[in-house]
Amino acid sequence: MTDPAHKPTFGDTVTIETVGSDSAVQRSSHAVARALLRPALELLARIAARHPTARTHGFRAANFIELAAYPLRPSRGTRRRIVMFEQFRAEWLWHKDLPDPDQAAQGAILYFHGGAFILGGLHSHRRMAARLARASGIPVLVVDYRQLPLAHITDSITDAVDSYRYLLDRGYAPGKIVFAGDSAGGGLAFSAALAARDEGLPVPGGIAAISPWADLDCSAKRAHPNEAHDAMLSGFILSVPGELGMARGNGLDPAWSAVNHDFHGMPAIFIQVGSLEVLRVDVDLLARRCAEAHVPCTVQVWKHAIHDFQLGADLLPDARAAVGDMAHFIYRITDPDNLKAGTP
């Protein structure tokens, strides 16, 4: 994706859609974020890049930003239940009109939150996950996986696969489980599915990702035209937790990034990304892996949408529409009639 208007040609299994209203609200939110949020993130990234001690302290401080999201509450009618694992925790979210998650026949969404592997958690993504649960009619298990600086991405992947094993052990059919996530969590959804496959587990029924960060190596992102236009992120910003935070010994292991894997055997995939996001580079690579493996993949490119705009569904009409589209994909995967017909 070399420019916002370009649609690369992939195989027959990959569909690229340009969607969204390109409204004044979308453009305004992009302009405000570009003027205020990105400069602040760039400054913090430069400080962290130059001072290793500040970087470590910064990662720790970022972990606590999650507490600021504590006052956020899911929509009325949302039910919640905490699940404790040995190394992490997770939270079930479902609407009161839906069956209890213990009724595994309905399927489940396994959600991995974003936050560059240094921030975010159950509080920050509770409203988003609850909205997705209600829109899809499927309960959501949000995974509060381990993050930097106390854990590595390999630990995050282990937690993600363990949460999947939990669902399988409780009787959930793999074909009725959809991995979902945003940003770092979107990339983690792919890594978890690949790890599950490589460990001999059945793959989930589908993967739904919002602006997935699926390549820790940020060199291609720094060279992309969207580096100058993204309202929130840049290749440089992502390189701090990615290349500096994750590196071991000689640097990054390519195996830690989902884009460097063979996608044969992966399930149907649905991806959303903003037209000016630097993470379109990662989305392009994921689409190519799908094309090479003949995996069905739909990519929605939303006009002038900022990174993770879906989290603003309370305010942005396009965000509500995007969540609805994702919910529709998930419903088609998990609906019993579609499963019987073999048409996810």
TrEMBL record:
Record carries keyword Hydrolase: yes
Keyword Metal-binding assigned to the entry: answer is no
Q: What class of enzyme is it?
A: hydrolase
Matching entries from Gene3D superfamilies are given as: alpha/beta hydrolase
Q: Which InterPro entries match?
A: AB_hydrolase_3, AB_hydrolase_fold, GDXG_lipolytic_enzyme, Lipase_GDXG_put_SER_AS
Identify the residues that the record assigns to the Alpha/beta hydrolase fold-3 domain, covering every copy: 109-310
Q: Which UniProt keywords apply?
A: Hydrolase
**Catalytic-site annotation from UniProt:** 183
Q: Name one GO molecular function term.
A: triacylglycerol lipase activity
In the Enzyme Commission scheme, what number(s) does this protein have? 3.1.1.83
**Record-stated family:** Belongs to the 'GDXG' lipolytic enzyme family.
Give the protein name, as stated in the record. Esterase
Biological source species: Mycobacteroides abscessus subsp. abscessus
Gene of this entry: mlhB_5
